[in-house]
Specification:
Two copies of one chain form a homodimer. By secondary structure, chain A is mostly helical. At the A-B interface, helix 7 and helix 8 of A face helix 7 and helix 8 of B. The structure holds a DNA duplex (30 and 30 nucleotides).
Chain lengths: 193, 193
DNA sequence: TGGTGTTTGTGGACACTGTCCACTTGGGTA
DNA sequence: TACCCAAGTGGACAGTGTCCACAAACACCA
């Protein structure tokens, strides 16, 4: 049921996950859904968690693809960029899922994926990890580290929203990638101020 | 009709502007709305434009409140902060309107408010104006000026979304204003790199 | 002044949604 | 074997966006 709903969300965002249709698509009567979810919002919450998990997976995969030892300055910088790039590309490649992932501000921790062995860390945790590495590598002054994940998250999230679903989404590929490049440089400027 | 719909959006975001209720609240039968709007989305588009206009108004008002001559470095910096602060505060004070303002990626230019004399410029234009002043004032290197509005917009927009409706919206006031402060400093760091 | 045409609003209908209630069913356990 | 509970069914209700045919009110021009 959740995976059927996920496909609806992928195609049309959170509003597209309509209870009756997901029931229909698993070949069951609408009311059957109420045996598993209190209401539509609870179903949507499950989908939202799944979407967030997919974002985390893509980020982790993109980071792993970066070669270079831990603590090596250039590699650490590339890992930060890999995180941001994955985030922004996710919002464009899967606008429906991206929207869905942030559709429910409440219960956002997606249940931490606690025990699940293969699960990747939360996006924010992945960002923190790379920032710690940047300190370790001497790229970022340790005194500026506390809390710096929030401005960076804001910048990347804003870019993702504006170019993925927002007013900048209809720009040409060239214009968008120039903006993305500028934003990447902007973050590095702020870090190595 | 638009202003009735605007109140619904203010209270509950774009999803709350339901055609039948706005008709009801202006004391008319639902179908009457179809004499003025092709469908619900067109009504929503009008509301969206109005919400964007309100954001622009607040930004402009906040900027005007800053004293200091044009081109004076410290004043220019304060004007940039005033813009960002207005943006972020709008998303918290009027989450419904903020969401609505960006609900329709299409037809986003809100018809420019062309002739209207009292109308304030679009948010993005206001930002550009202040950035030009920062160059004029010698705070920002003119060679770094082109396109820098986009990283800044991204940062501010991201902060507004994350703390206004997103996962950071339930933080304490103290935590949120610390993040806002960090983000302001982050932007200034990047500018005066 | 009177007639005509356009604008605005009405009434009724349809398909679709989320949700509630009472009811059946089937597999596993005491 | 008897029972119980989870899962699914059928029918219903209120609410929604939207379409159609019709009524009134108003402006305009002969």
């Amino acid at each position: 049921m959740v995976s059927a709903a996920l496909e609806l969300a992928r195609a049309g965002g959170p509003d597209a996950v309509v209870l009756r249709e997901v029931a229909r698509s698993v070949g069951v009567v609408p009311n059957a859904a109420y045996r598993h979810f209190a209401d539509r919002e609870e179903l949507l919450a499950a989908v939202c968690a799944e979407a967030m998990r997919e974002l985390a997976t893509r980020m982790a995969a993109n980071v792993r693809r970066v070669r270079g030892r831990y603590g090596e300055p250039e590699a650490a910088r590339r890992r930060l960029r890999a995180i941001g790039r994955a985030y922004v590309e996710f919002s464009r490649a899967e606008p429906g899922l991206f929207l869905t992932a942030f559709a429910l501000p409440h219960r956002h921790a997606y249940d931490a994926g606690d025990g699940e062995p293969g699960a990747d860390r939360l996006p924010l945790d992945q960002l923190r990890e790379v920032l710690d590495e940047l300190v370790e590598a001497g790229v970022l002054d340790g005194r500026r580290r506390p809390g710096i994940e929030y401005p960076i998250w804001s910048t990347v999230h804003g870019l993702a929203v504006l170019t993925g679903q927002g007013p900048l989404r209809d720009l040409t590929d060239a214009a968008r990638s120039r903006i993305a490049e500028l934003t990447g440089a902007f973050i590095e400027d702020a870090l190595s101020r």
